Structure formats: C-alpha cells, structure tokens
Input
Amino acid sequence: MSFARPLALVGLLLIPLLIQWYIRHQRKRERAAAAFVAAPLIASVAPVRPRWRRHVPMLAFLLALAILILAAAKPQRSLAVPVTDGAVMLANDVSSSMAAKDVAPSREGAAQRAAETFLAHVPTAVEVGLLEFNQTPIVLQSPTTDHALTAVALRQLHARGHTAVGDAILAALRTLRTLPTHGGKRPPGAIVLISDGYSTNGTDPIAAARQAAADHIPIYTVAVGTDHGTIPIPRGGKTVNVLVPIAPQQLAQIASVSGGRAYTAADAGDLSQVYQHLAAQLGRKHVEHGLTASFAGGGLALLLLGSGLSLFWFGRLA
Output
C-alpha cells in the first residue's frame, strides 16, 4: 500500500499527544474525586465504577482519528488488471553465434520456440511484432493482434553475421512509435530482446536503452546459451569449432537502464518458462486503486461506535 499524500501522515503524531492528555485528564479527575469525597465513603457514594468501560469510547475515538488521518493521506494499492491495448516487439538475435547447439536444438531454434510460447500465452489484445537482427535489423512483422502472422514470421529466422544490439533497439523503438494512437495516447509498449552476447556493431546499445527509457518503453532482455557453446568456422581450408560463450552482462545493463528486467536461460525449458512469464507480465498492467473511501468510512463508523457507547453507558458523548 502507498499514499498519494504522505505528508498527511504527520498528523499521526497527534495520537500519542492525545493519549498523554487523556491520561493526565483521568488522573486529574481521580484527584478531584478524592478531594471531594473522603476515602472511606467512596464505596457508598459510587458503589459501581465503570472501570475499563470508561476508556472504550476514547479508544474508539483515537482509532477513528488515526484512520481518518490515513484517509487524508489518500491510501492506494496497486492492482494487476488485464491490458486492453499494448504492443510488444520481439527482437531476435540471428547472428552466427545463435547457431550454437549448447541449447537444443540450437540457440536460434530454442528462441523461436520460446517466442511461440510467448504468442500462445500473451492476451489477444496485445499487438506483437517481430524483428531479426545481426549487423542489420529487419522488421519481419509489424505489431499485430493477429499473432498467427507473427508466428509465420518466426519461421523465417536464420543465423548469420555479426551483432548490432543498439541498432535493433532503435529499429524496435521506431516501429512502436509509428503505431496508431488511441484517444491521443500511444498504446503502452515494450521490447523483448533475446541474444547471447555483446553487441559488436552499430549504435551503442546503452545509449539506445536510454532512448527507450525516455520513450517509456522498457526492454526485457533474455540471454540464451552457456559458456560452452561452439560454432563451426572455416579456417585455412578446414572447419574449426570456435567457442562462443554467453555474455549476459551488457544485456542486463540494457534492461536496467531502460526500466525492464534481465533474464538468463541455459536450456530450452528455462527459455520457454521465461517467455511464458513475460507473456503473463506484459499481458497485465498495474493500476492504483484508491482506498480513501474505505478508510474514511471505517473512521466514521468508529466515531459513531464510540459516541454510541459513551451515550449508552454514561449518558454523555465524552
């Protein structure tokens, strides 16, 4: 729970002051009664004393005051509700290292299957597009609610070339910026970027991530692979296996700078779970639900309770 006007909570400092005043007031009444009636006569003058009951109305008043102060601070809680619009760009790395088979059937193949899992679980109201990137980003499918079209585009991915993560981010941002507005507002957007290592070409990816943050478009990065992946490279008339270990550090930084989150997957099962989680996460949005009316109603109910008990037991309000 959070508060829209937290400064109002300073009023809670009144509660201990009122408690001290009440204790002093009760002691003053007891001293006045003792001065008015001799001690041996107290039992005959006031044979039935209310004891704990005399404090109940005041306790109700204090609780009511505390709750009303909380109401003045405008309490609210965050609720997850299904999105009615939104757009996600899947950005798949298709550089040569994605052909490594340390993740079955390959990093690229596992990424395709995970993206299909994402499409199967993301709400139909969310538009999903796809771009592939090596040293050059290519938009294969603009964001659409017809997820079958995006699934068809996924089958066109082929690993080759180098890696330009920054250029891919900028291409995804351009695509999301061109989406039609609804009521003068652009639908909320996000980028899901899967890769296995550092950017080797093009725009600085951290600068691109800052641009995404400025556009309020978080980037969720997924690093796929292990430290033992290899790909065959022709050298000197023969083919040698070259080590292509995963390098998730830059991807984590991209996610952090943009306001997204970074994930790592060492096998196809983990990768599908990550994408299923992302589909659920991006299919919901958090809205603040005000609790002021509930708190105010509770405070007023306690005031009425305290007043009613005071009148019933003692024939007065205080």
Observations:
- DSSP finds ten helices and eleven strands in the chain.
